[in-house]
Amino acid sequence: MREYLVSASLAAILCFLLTPLVRDLAMKSGAFLEIRSRDLHTTITPRWGGLAMWGSMSLTFLIVDHLRLVGAAFGRETSGIFLAGTFIMLLGALDDRFDLDSLTKFAGQALAAGILLLHGVQILWLPINGILTLPSNIGQVLTVIFVMLVINAVNFVDGLDGLAAGIVAVCALAFFLFSYVLAVDNGFSRAGAPSLITAVVVGICVGFLPHNFYPAKIFMGDSGAMLLGLLLSASAITLTGQIDINAISDQSSRSTLVPLLLPFTVLAIPLLDLGMAIVRRLRAGRSPFSADREHLHHRLLQMGNSQRQVTVIMYLWTAMFAFPTVAAAFAPLWEALLMGLAIGLISLYVIFKSRLNRKVGVVEVFSADNF
To answer: For the chain, give me the number of helices (H) and strands (E)?
Structure first.
């Protein structure tokens, strides 16, 4: 655990230091958009935050490769994830600068998934009627679909300062906890690519947030959103290939389900927002990729919450799905449900606190006359 903490801390420090340099580079290179009617920010803000994320990830990998435990996690799969991440980051950087069309981006995302396949990162089984081992071609198709789905889910939720970075940090932390505890409980090697990748993702998101939280000084752009989406999806797929399904099935059927269930629960909010946006736009006769101001975060803003409050609320909603799912694999189900309920109640408190303050005022609520 200590070496993973070192890896996450190093990634955070490097990302925090690199981001201002990338911000200056983005402004000089024209990697920004003029303010549009659907935008919430009021000043021109550079993108290319993904370059800082990728740079900090690369430097972190170079350094921690020499650590005793974490260094053993580097192999064919980790190399494939790094190469695919590099490709998708460059594609996103071009989109941030030149605004590529959707077809080009989809083709690039599929190609990035292909790089993962070439390095052995592939869905091998599904928890259907026990364990269903997939034919190679079916597993490859599902891998490409899954990677593209997660990439676009993260990209869709990137509509508010600090929102995507915080949500991905929560998701990655849940992934890390599951993969690490699973290895400890079942005697697997703790030096796994999923644990290393997710620890670094947590680090780069934490390091980026001080520059990206409202009011943002830089956006992650597609270069960052697609990079983070690919890293999350690849970590989940790699995790399924590294565990002994038969050994886990004998001990806990819930642990068998979690590796493929976890990506959908930790990304429940982005995936829900993505699905609602597609249905909403198709029903209105518009392209599913046309932009609007009807995402979940827009609706929360319309309820009177500030941008910071909306961001925290969606962090809590993500945690409400993510951490109980992890807990359910190792603890009684009622404890996991209780955890989710507690986080949900906290989010409701944040939602209605500002409305209450506006109606009666904080001073009046706590005045002696009310007791």
So the answer is: 15, 2
pLDDT-derived band at 236, boundaries 50, 70, 90: confident
Measured distance CA(70)–CA(293) in Å, rounded: 43
Residue type, 297: H
DSSP-derived 3-state class of residue 366: coil
For helices 163-186 and 253-266, give the axis angle rounded to 10 degrees: 170
Q: Per the omega criterion (within 30 degrees of 0), is the bond before 215 cis?
A: yes
Instruction: Please tell me the number of Cα atoms within 13 Å of 261 on its side-chain side.
Output: 18
Give me the amino acid identity at 192: G
In tens, the pLDDT along 6-27 reads: 999 999 999 999 999 999 999 9
The amino acid occupying position 361 is G
Is residue 82 within 8 Å of 70, Cβ to Cβ?
A: no
C-beta separation of 113 from 148 below 8 A:
yes
Q: Residue 169 is encoded by which pair of tokens?
A: 């940090």
